[in-house]
Amino acid sequence: MNRTRLDNARPRRDAENYLHLEHYAALGDGRTMALSVSDGSLDWWCVPNLDSPPLFDRLLDPQEGGYFAITPREAFEVERAYRPESNVLETIFTTAGGKARMVESLNSGSAGRLPWCELARRIEGLEGSVHFDIALRLGHRAGTASPYMQNVAGHDVFHVGSVLGLFLRGSGVIIEHLGDNGATASLTIEAGQSELLAIVAGEDEPLVAPSLDEIDARIDGSDDEWRTWAQTVQCDGPYRDTLVRSALALKLLLFSPSGAIAAAATTSLPERIGGSKNYDYRFAWVRDAGYTINAFLRVGAQAEAKAALTWLLKQIEKVGPRVCYSIWGGAASDVRTVDLPGYRRSEPVVAGNRATDQRQHGIYGDIFETAACFVDHGNILDARSAEILAHLADQCADIWRQKDSGIWELAEEQHYTMSKIGCWQALARAVELADAGQLPTTCRDRWSRERDRIKAWITEHCWSESLGAYSFYPGSDRLDASLALAVRFGFDGRDRLRRTVEAIDRELGCGPYHYRYSGADKEEGCFLACTFWMVEAKILLDQPEAASRAFTEAIEGLAPSIGVYPEMIEPVSGRYLGNMPQGLTHLAIIQALMSLRAGRG
């Protein structure tokens, strides 16, 4: 197994107890996700659902937050990797006295997702002996709950607000202190020995108390399930490992109770350390969901694509087209501030997202591109879905002349070029779907005329000869890196798109990465998805060598991660920024890889 050596010695938390985000890996079960760090601590876990308040929140509250740590007592080196084509994680700790492996999994059952959350951590002795310190600290949900623990039927049962959980462990784990706030313990593991620690939890529901043997067996059963799914991914050759890793990350973000695709698993990880651009991404964005569906279709994950598209169309029918939705369905909740210090004291920490009520015309293009991709893979739209899409095309034809907040959800409404291209894209795909018999043709000719009007408007107003590129919006001297997507969408002639891509590289590039738009370097890091959109654009513009070189440099610059990527990166230091795992980053990697593999998209 190829492993990533994250540090030559014990990963060091800073004076305030923070670690860099690139040291985190993700575990998931289709319902929630946990972030495990390379020093043996699990610092983030929302229970029982992805959008629940966190049970463990040391990521945002390093002094008082909850966590579950299993850490060698002596100085250690660490290597970690996911098992091949799996989301089961292995970490090898090497000390002066021995070597041990920790295997971590958010378990599933033989029939799919379990009706409870089951976090399993198996410690295996490999060489000599290793002494571990164990700490379970129960969080207080930002001061809204006071945890307590009691013994029930021989089990240590904890309560944190509405969450009920069991702290289970093998006989080799020596409890040193057990109280309302958690436990401390120790474990000495010898070569050939194995011990299991686990947390089983739920919310406002009776709780099953499985045996340690059952939980232990489910680690390897979950691994089998992940590998079985990964084997369906349709990609061979030198790019397969990287592509499958990103596909597995996207699979973690698929919220199985509804079929929604969350943008990320965290909230409030800053886009710049000390900045205020901190957002809750535990919602389903139309843009992210649409692009993820397309990525799933490209790698042959038809079931996931179908489930997500069905969910998306039902939300549009129920509450209308919005920028984002709750992962359960319906509008996203409004923003409230959470009383936590934040990652590296970057405030505010928030729950909820205001973007749901923004006007963002690009969502029309995202929805129709997704529907067209679904049909292009040999699938069929039902009559109700076709009717929903036809109404959306009519709406797009009516509103495209209005200003909006653009793809980047900015406070200033403008006639953003990418939003107009999104409207053109929506009507172009609507006409194609109607011609293919997938949509009613009643308004087909009207859609065609508006499509052509939008293109003419963009040609007249949005091209800047002084920039040598399409501008951010008419009259602006700023660039927008998302315009690289216009190449995939098939907009305009190749010369203007090629010049736009060159201008983005020249003006928004920093090393192998790219800022979202002119001036963003003063507010945030480089947006990783933009870099991989640029790779895809170069392939489509017949620049395979430049595309391959750009992809390699970008991926190599993301080390030492084991394949869980954030929203942004600080291009000089290489430090990760923003929420993670970020679906938009991983799906952009998949699109770029599939295009590189094909030579042309």
UniProtKB/TrEMBL annotation:
GO biological process, one term: carbohydrate metabolic process
Highest taxon listed in the record's lineage: Bacteria
Domain Trehalase-like N-terminal: 20-94
Entry keyword annotation includes NADP: no
One MF term in the entry's GO annotations: hydrolase activity, hydrolyzing O-glycosyl compounds
Domain GH15-like: 237-537
InterPro entries, A to Z: 6-hairpin_glycosidase_sf (IPR008928), 6hp_glycosidase-like_sf (IPR012341), GH15-like (IPR011613), Trehalase-like_N (IPR045582)
Keyword entries, A-Z: Hydrolase
A Pfam family that the UniProt record links to this protein: Glyco_hydro_15
Keyword Oxidoreductase belongs to the record: no
Protein name as catalogued: Glycoside hydrolase family 15 protein
Organism of this sequence: Sphingobium limneticum
